[in-house]
Amino acid sequence: MGNVAENLSVVRDQVASACLKAGRRADEVRLIAVSKTKSAEAVREAWDAGHRDFGESYVQEFLEKLEDPLLAGIQLSWHFIGHLQSNKVRQVTGKVAMIHGIDKVSTVEELSKRAIQQDILMDYLLEVNVSRESSKYGLDSSSLIQAAESCFRLPNVRLRGLMTIASPDQDQARREFAELRENLESLRRTAPDPALLSELSMGMSQDFEEAILEGATMIRIGTAIFGWR
Ligand SMILES: *Cc1c(COP(=O)(O)O)cnc(C)c1O
Question: What's this model's pTM, rounded to 2 decimal places?
Answer without folding.
Answer: 0.97
